Amino acid sequence: MDKSSYSDWLINNSIAELVASTGLPVNISDAYQDPRFDAEADQFSGFHIRSVLCVPIWNSNHQIIGVAQVLNRLDGKPFDDADQRLFEAFVIFCGLGINNTIMYDQVKKSWAKQSVALDVLSYHATCSKTEVDKFKAANIPLVCELGIDKLSFDDFSLDVDAMVTASLRMFMELGMVQKFKIDYETLCRWLLTVRKNYRMVLYHNWRHAFNVCQCMFSMLTTAGFQETLTEMEILALIVGCICHDLDHRGTNNAFQAKTGSALSLLYGTSATLEHHHFNHAVMILQSEIQRVYLCHCHLHANELRSSFTPSKSVFTDQQKDKY
């Protein structure tokens, strides 16, 4: 029999259409004696059909996603109840396979959409080259001039731009630029991008992020913590502090959960905002513009990623903490 003719019969056969529309299995012992069977199509195909067993294929939502059909039992007898039960059990796995294929395709499309969205977000969330050039050429005051090594430091003594230069000084003073061979222009761009990604909310804003980072810097340099930590841990702490409230919405986790916000649906945890801050920080660090976590060395980048985890992100849920 010609394969194309047989395929045409399968596509156009009325039994499959009936099962797909009703959701009920059809077991025909003598096809030519059953009014549901299209004998003319059988004669056209040149393939003589004696018996037909056709069952629906369901997905996990109990929706029909296909039909499966077998023709002519090998011994010439009609399909019995045992055959039907076995076939119905078999098509469960067919349904799983089809459903998984559909889900995989949906995941691929979702991933592609997310990738495009992140590319667009990364482009618009990044600071301009003019800003980078301005800070790259600026003279960075010394620690003693800024007073950032003191726990009593008043961050309101600095404006938003001065906080960026003070952040640059902290990286340099801790030896991070030299140790990890951080490109200075990239560091400027990264800090400015981080600043841009803090929203103009009342408390969890860029000034708060700088304040936490300066407090950590003071503890590292004056309380002796610098001697007990590895250089990678110090870098992770500084990066974690400056990024710990990125894209904060000015509300707490309870608000996110009760309003059913997109963030709570996405992360589905009691620490919704903390996970979002972490993921937003990683997105900025991973962006091509930032050149792999600010470092040219892939080994350092991987070490920083393992050191910089949500557990090291400062917890600032207003409901549970007074930060």
UniProtKB/TrEMBL annotation:
InterPro entries: GAF, GAF-like_dom_sf, HD/PDEase_dom, PDEase, PDEase_catalytic_dom, PDEase_catalytic_dom_sf, PDEase_CS. The lineage of its organism: Eukaryota, Metazoa, Chordata, Craniata, Vertebrata. PROSITE patterns: PDEASE_I_1 (PS00126), PDEASE_I_2 (PS51845). GO terms for molecular function: 3',5'-cyclic-nucleotide phosphodiesterase activity; metal ion binding. It holds the Pfam family GAF. The active site is at residue 204. Zn(2+) 1 binds at residues 208, 244-245. This is Dual 3',5'-cyclic-AMP and-GMP phosphodiesterase 11A. Residues 128-323 form the PDEase domain. Coiled coil: none annotated. Zn(2+) 2 binds at residue 245. Keywords: cGMP, Hydrolase, Metal-binding. CDD domains: HDc. One of its GO terms (biological process) is signal transduction.
